[in-house]
Design brief:
about 170 residues; alpha+beta; five-stranded mixed beta sheet; 5 strands
Length: about 170
């Protein structure tokens, strides 16, 4: 059995991560890839934008918007092959996306206005997306795509602890 995720940025229908909402199989609205070994795919990603207030010679301030999103139309499951355990695995993929949105917000919170703030924000965004992709892959590997229940439980505990640690930066 194999599961998957992918990171997505685009103009599709989406909803933001919330600690009061957990994914349901109804959220997985995309057509399943019957040629894939995966039984479910979570499409999630971090959307990011910013604005900078400046004079001709000085950056005065900046604002950012950083959100973890789930994309129902690009997420799918093979209904006859999934269960609640698989759903919790897919939820954790979305939670890992939120974790990285929080890590991004934490990094931005420490940033002060400067002439190169736009480049710095873009660098942060690029790095956080690379780290997110690496963690998603590591999670799938170490949980064996949810088959290794002990590995899954270790990841569940780790992500919950990190989300709590970074609760100041939640969506």
């Amino acid at each position: 059995m194999c599961f998957g995720f992918f990171l997505f940025n685009g103009d599709a229908t989406e909803f933001s991560w919330s600690d009061t909402y957990k994914l349901t199989w109804n959220d997985f609205q995309g057509a399943p890839d019957q040629n894939s070994e995966a039984v479910a795919v979570t499409a999630s990603g971090i959307t990011f934008n910013y604005s900078i207030k400046k004079t001709k010679t000085k950056v005065l301030s900046f604002k950012t918007m950083i959100k973890a999103h789930f994309y129902p139309e690009h997420s799918w499951c093979k209904e006859s092959e999934v269960d609640d355990h698989v759903l919790s695995h897919e939820q954790l993929h979305f939670d890992i996306t939120e974790l990285h949105a929080r890590l991004f917000r934490e990094k931005v919170d420490a940033l002060r206005p400067s002439q190169n703030v736009a480049e710095t924000l873009q660098d942060y965004h690029k790095t956080i997306n690379e780290n997110l992709e690496n963690m998603q892959n590591k999670y799938d590997s170490e949980s064996n795509y949810s088959i290794d229940k002990e590995g899954q439980a270790i990841w569940q505990s780790y992500v919950e602890k990190e989300l709590k640690r970074l609760s100041k930066y939640k969506s």
